[in-house]
Amino acid sequence: MDAKANKIEPQDGFQTEFLRSRADIVIGGGAAGAGKSFAELLEPLRNIQNPNFGAVFFRRTVPQITSIGGLLDESKNLYYHFAAKLNQTRLSWEFPSGAVIKFRSLEHEKNIYDHQGAQYPLIIFDELTHFTKKQFLYLLSRNRSTCGVPPYVRTTCNPDPDSWVAELIKWWIDQETGYPIAERAGSVRYFVAEKENYIWGNTRQEVMEKAPYLFDNEAFEGLDKNKLIKSLTFIPGSIYQNHRLLEKDPGYLANLLSQDETERARLLDGNWKVSTDGMSLFDFSATYNLFSNFVARDETSVITCDAARFGANLATVFVWKGWEVVAIHVYTKSSLDKLRDTIERERERWRVPKSAVLVDQDGLGGGLVDFGGYEGFSGGETAMNDPKTGIKENFFNKKTQLFYKLAEKVNGNKILIRIEGDNCFVDGTASLKVKINGSQFDIKDLIRKHLRCIKKKITSGDGKLRINSKEEQKSILGNDESPDFADTMMMRMQFDYKPVYSNQNLSELFF
Which of 51, 93, 269, 434 has the greatest number of CB atoms lying within 10 Å of its CB? Predict the structure, then answer.
């Protein structure tokens, strides 16, 4: 749109999608700096030529509205361009047509009754997670219109895993990783609230069929019962889509990056599930850097494999060139023949000697070690001596030792995992996703999740460093899932302690 020769328009991405949606209720954002406030403030402008139109913005307290740089200040940068007049006392804008936009607070639940009898064609909740569920549902009853504009609601918020909003939008959020499901962003669902519960459907008809008793009411005779059912969608946003902010104030991104890992996950990455206990070996941000780090060139090629044949466990094969993962194979169902064939193909491609193929033999990999003639890994062995000092390191066992060493590498941004369409395979087919127990996961997300379930454990009387048990790790992951990607990465660290050509002659390397 144009106002006084100044072009005012949303940015591509979150703002455009937020304004484009025709759902009754849109919840937008899920990360800081996405441009949520500007999108909210643009929304009422589409109807300001209607003299009977009115919109109301809600914040929990008045200071949140009137503070420097707050919602009212932001509105001044926009609404003056449309010849609107601000009533500072009443916190409202009136446009030449007579349309009105108000800013109101709802500090206490009892304040909802200040709006009895009100009719608001458009209601906008800024920071929805700051409001109670009761406030939100009550104000929906005030979302009425006689001005010709169908009533609708727009809201924005940052992630809050403990809020009622997290439950409201759970269909749009991966409940394992806490991140928005990309293919569901902007998808519309339908619901009706029954006391404290929501009844959902993919269509209004489906909602009616699930709860016919809610609509078999004589009071509804002659009414369009479809209007009793609300449509809702969630549209995630990111600061990286807000190019104007990044150009104008790049320090804001720096501020987000400087937060502790919990706040970075929420505010920068839009995670609705993250919570940390300070015991994770791997830094949250470092697990993201794994896929974009720059690492020193190293021609040493090795292969690590965590073997599995069935169940929730995956068989995973990583090909390493120095500290870069150059190929990944994942099998949801595998056999010794299949794993050996895969390893042999990659050995030939990358010129990897058999002594540089390390297979976990604690579980099902023992057969593969014998079948392929590879090196076997046993995490329960005693910790190895420091290769520089020759002194035995103070770890409970070798697996613990190597996980601590891997954490040093990952947290120091010294490992790169290259995951692309031509080097990542699932069950023999190029793919960046894998299905576990009927749910599909991005492999990058699985790698991060598997690393994050490895926790430090309080040392016992012997003073040795420990990590949580495999059972505890699987409990964190849920669904009997095992941290197979983390185990495959951990084994790479053994080559820092033992020479690659430890048990074979050079003439035997490839035969």
Answer: 93
Pairing of strands 301-306, 230-236: unpaired
Q: Distance between CA atoms of 449 and 74, rounded to whole angstroms?
A: 39
Handedness of CA 124, 179, 291, 349 (dihedral sign): negative
Report the pLDDT value the prediction gives residue 233, as an integer from 0 to 100.
98
Candidate CATH numbers 3.60.150.10, 3.40.50.300, 3.20.20.140, 3.10.410.10; the one for domain 13-241: 3.40.50.300
- Where does residue 437 fall: left (phi above 0), alpha (psi -120 to 50 degrees), or beta otherwise? left
pLDDT tens, 202-260?
999 999 999 888 887 765 666 777 788 999 999 999 888 888 888 888 877 777 776 65
**In the structure encoding, which two tokens stand for residue 292, read together?**
């974009």
Q: What is the DSSP string of 26-39?
A: EEEESSTTS-HHHH
| Cα 141 to Cα 278: distance, rounded to the nearest angstrom | 43
DSSP state of 430: E
263: left (phi over 0), alpha (psi -120 to 50) or beta: alpha
